[in-house]
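Field: COMPLEX_INPUT
Field: COMPONENT_COUNT = two
Field: RESIDUE_TOTAL = 705
Field: MODE = joint
Values follow.
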Amino acid sequence: MRKILLSILTIGFVAIVAIGATVAYFSATSTVLENTFASGNVTLGEVWNLPLTFGNLIPGIEQSRDAAIKYTGTTPADIYIGMANQSGYAWYDPSTNISKMEFAIWSAEDGIWLVNWSPVKNILADWIKVASNVNPNTWRHYTVKVRVYPDVGEEAEGQTNVSKLIIHAVQAGAPVQLTGAPWQQ
Amino acid sequence: MLKKKLKKVVSIFQWLLTVVLVSVVLLLIFTTFNPIKSFQVLRVMSGSMEPAIKVGSVAFVQKVKPKALKKGEIITYASAEDPNMSVTHRLVAIEEKEGKTVFITKGDVNNTEDITEVSSSQIKGRVIFSLPFLGYLSVWVRKPLGFGLLVILPAFLIIISEILNIKKAIEKEVEKKYAKPEKQQKSESIGSLLIFFLLGISLFQIKPTNAYFSDVIVIEGNTFSMADVWPPPTPTPASVVINEVYYDVKDDDTRGTENKNEWIELYNNSNNPVNLKDWSLVEGAGTVKNINPNVSIPAKGFIVLSHDHSTWSLYWSLPSGVSSINLTGSGEWLNNGGDKLILKNDKEEEVDLVAWGSYVPGWNLNANDGKSIARKIKGVDTDSPDDWGVLDNPNPGTNPHPSEEYKEEVESVSAEEELALEEPTQESSEVVPEDEVVTEEVNEPTTGQSEEEQEEDKGQPDANQDAKQEEEQTVDNEDSSENSDRQNQPPAGEPPSQPQPEEQDQNQTFLPEEGSEINE
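Field: COMPLEX_OUTPUT
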């Protein structure tokens, strides 16, 4: 009698666990990242036409420059950019939240404006994703436009700003939240 | 003798294998199902922690308080982007920022530290050890074949076996006989199956952690320099202007009601159609009326806007070719006592402004009870109240008929424009005196000076402005081309240029230059 009871309990336990696991199996919404192993590396290689140089800026009149980044890692990656003020005249004042310049970024490979005239604050205060799932040994080409706001005060006349551009490549799909100001780097 | 020794070795090997397997299963079961979550098992999906933790390993993470962590330890923390995902990297620094402890992490093979800092609340624990390859098995169990072989099949066999046991036990109960050796054999068989089943379940429960790869480069010295001397600002004329506003609907119901039948006339002063989609009109109190339809105002043409299409079908007639836009609103909008109206383009830039009733200082126009305010000369915009007058008989969709009060002023303005033309037409200079032409234009704008001649007159300022804009653009282009010439020296044999945006400088190409400096 005890043997029968033990067998019934075993059947019950196994059945419940197996059914639970099966339900979990079919309801799982696992991502590629959860089930795909990644080995290799993520590295940024050459850049072209960087650093950017904009001279003789006049309020209201745009200027554009081309630049390119080569991704040389061996596993696909997402690329982000941010800027941080190095020295000179500040185009964005965090204390007043006023931007004195706007910018736009065109991606040649995607054929779209990644940023279409946005206050310069947005590249100084946060990261901008400029490429997704970039394959190894790929050039990414961009056109960067800048335009000083027409109402910028005369105190900007003759001023120069020097900034650093931070380019960040992360393994494609990695659970990385790139928020916050790149100037902290 | 040799056979006996061989049997003994095989037996020891079997025992060792069983002990290892059972230990792993027990470890997995303990860490996977332990209620206090003091340990966690995670499969490592990427290899930035190699060789310390190989990709495909299973990492055993001990839950610890963030304060107990030390620099150099491998830690696991919840992703700020997705709390269900975790990251396993090495702790390289612990810093205090704004009264809070933040943890700086880095993958061992990554060139740089992780760009995001980790807060105390994200910490899950430290990695105490890892077992290689089990992660691959964990992913395999999550696939149909693995799940079938390590979970479903053992469960099925166990249940069948136990059902047979029950059947036999019942038979023996009836016969009052129990066979002990058979019982032992059965339980061993179920034990092996149970080990496989629990192994499968434990592996299935293991969650992923990401030892992601990353890299950062910093390009220093990007310069943005303003010109030393700015050119004097040159006002750019708005191509589309507010040309007439009927804000006080006549009280006798012949022209509709204030709620629905106020209207605004726009005029396109340029030589090209202008799409008005997403343009807007903003009234003094801040009420915004968006122009939603994808409609264009023709070159040198009109378009009229109102709250309700009944304005045009019942109360006013529009010349052929003039479109109307329904602003889809209700209730009184424009204030009869005094108000202002701002026209904004799709970039929300202010394009034109008109005000009345002294709502804005200097704008003292009053067109009450069925009158309208209108530009004295269509499209002429000097951003001054002097451009405007009051129409006793509003006239949507056409050149306004100036009222008597400012007829003389219009005459003088138009005469000056005529004189400014260097090469007047033979017809106008010989057949009709200038003053007469102007008078005709004012009194009978649709039958006097031909519409084409009027367009020619109004087109002159545009041409001048175009020249100015071209001059400005030339300055910009010269600067850009100078820069481009300096920067664009692609090495031979590089791939052809990439697609360019529409406004791209044509002399720039997307050709990478070798040897560009990278500051890391």
